[in-house]
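User: Before I run my own analysis I want an independent prediction to cross-check against. Here's the chain; please return only the structure tokens and, at the end, one sentence I can use as a sanity check.
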Amino acid sequence: MMRASVLLSERCNTIRSACRAITSYRLHRSLSGTQLLTDSPKLAHSRRALLTGLATVPAVAFGAKRYFISRDMSTDAAAVEEAVSTATKADVPNPLLVDVSFPKYDEIKPEHVVPGVRALLSELHTAIDKLEAEVAPTWAGLVEPLERIGDRHQRVWGIVSHFKGVKDSPELRAAVEEVQPENVKLSLRLSQSKPLYSAFKALREGPEWASLTSAQKRIVDNELRDFVLGGVALEGEAKERFNAIQQELAQLATKFSNNVLDATKAFRKLLTDPADLAGLPATSLGLAAQQAAREGHEGATPEKGPWLITLDFPSYFPVMTHAKNRELREEVYRAYISRASAGDSDNGPIIERILELRAEKSKLLGFDNFAELSMASKMATLDKAEELLEELRSASHAAAEKDKEEAQAFANSQGFEGQLEWWDVSFWAERLRESKYNISDEELRPYFALPNVLEGLFKLANRLFDVDVVPADGEAPVWHPDVRFFKVLKAGQPKAYFYLDPYSRPSEKRGGAWMAEVVGQSRLMAPPGSNVRLPVAHMVCNQMEPVGGKPSLMTFREVETLFHEFGHALQHMLTEVTEGLASGIRNIEWDAIELPSQFMENWAYDRATLYSFAKHFETGEPLPEELYGRLKAAKNYRSGTMMLRQLHFSSVDLELHARFKPGQGKSVYDIDQEVAARTLVMKPLPEDRFLCSFSHIFAGGYSAGYYSYKWAEVLSADAFNAFEEAGLDDEAAVRDTGARFRDTVLALGGSVPPADVFVRFRGREPSTRPLLQHNGLLAVAAA
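Assistant: Structure tokens:
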């Protein structure tokens, strides 16, 4: 049997060599010492990602593929069976299967999933039977039918995936468990279809190849690569074992994700003594009282309580940064870092099994380890990724040491005795920030009301990219009353649409923030009378909901997160590619996907942008100039510490997937501690089990790929530097540079290798210098 890695090399060397030039990327921030992972993308980068039974809708956390597997919930099986029976008997169309760009989110229920998905899979197997029997090695005879199959699957399974993230329930979990294995079988059948693979090879080597566009050629090359990575070269027992591994990995990933959600929901701490919450700002007290009232404590008020503290981030983080009660901080911190690490929700054994199966899968495909397999479809190699991480670690370590020393010295000066523990760091770092810069999140919140921030964000889109974003609420069904719907106009005509689900709902919605596609732009899938089907996206955040009749008042980090997700959405929506398999966020290497999102974050600090929305929600007064100055001055506060946290996550990920051997003495927690010795300036607690909630790499698309945040951050910082060089105060230059960014990074999607796209925009290869400069680390690195 030919080794899959050799076969892959034959078809893909030209693609990968074009992408090797880029050697850097950015950090997704963690705050002070607190672990914060805001992104969880689900992106369809290729048909393999789109159709894999392991992924939820292609998304981008922003791009992370979310795996659907179900927990052992035998108590729900009967309920699902009854619901399926009822749904089957009803002589009405299943709303899950309606062929529309705006799904019937308000009608779809868990009982529609099993009959709907089974009907879908039956339909698609029939379509594949026909295609395999009649396939012709031409674009129209091969690629277009496959796009139709993939699109149909994505639109239905995508709804299920989306609901799993924003509207989870025991009934939905049980329904997903029912059909997940069947869905994986479809994915495996497609990725291992020898008739289709042979047709792609014949197309690549045949007479039509010369007439294909560059975008079409890139699609074909990546399809050939993905067939190999999907196991098409395997035979007999090796193929059977590979498929069994894929099924088990799907189940383990969903189990992991469910455990994290359950463990997060399980922690509830009700407080009745105001002294226990001393230091918490009024917004946090209001949220805690609102949560208590929702749990049955009628009459709860911000002033008198009771107050309910949870591990949902809008509740957890204010406790860590503001609560004077050190015992409360310790209790909440220990609960947070030990989520899903004990009892029925223990993800520890699941992690070991996932790593074991990924290693075995890699060997079957001819790779030495899973990191090499993962990077076969990325820009970086393992060596290049680790070189970047080390470069950034060296540039950040001294600054992080200084951060630690300054926080310790300040705490001691304020009467704190002893060494700072993990549950002290965020609290004292915030007090030092207030002392140095005379600024706090709570002082800024009144100026960052969500309606105003959206208005400013949309003005920025017009300024940079010459598009208008207008409310379209009521024009499409939504899944929750808080969800907004918007239309993007270009030259006055509809260009795209998107949903926004902004608020935290810990009872049914997973944490983090992400963007995912509903449908992609496609010439082939154009409705009657149209030249192209327009793209539709949804953006999901988890910020604090409106409290006490006030709008949602955002922290500045939440503002950055909203800008980040909108950057992902813009790449999906402003694409000019009409080939559905390469439009928008599709067909883009994973380690380049964060470029537009992290690029957009930079604009939150831009003066003209900030003052377009930073006005007091009650008085309308703009943010005071001196407060803006303090915000800018504090921009790089503890940047060394924040950089190291992301480098730690990235390094642990690569170490586990490249060199760790399960069951040979050391545990994954031992590896975490060993990596921390070189990537952190403060040793984690021995009982730290953060890995048990690291969904990005164990239940998402970032396995052996978390470094991508840093890799793409190099690109995004350098891209923003183009605007700085042009002059941020030169409106004409900003608009011209924005148009160039729109016409390259946003417009070209996956039709051109990302390395080439960057050079088209920037006029040169990327540099790490702007990233270090933006983080205030350039002088440290030079020293």
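Sanity check: The chain has a mean pLDDT of 88.
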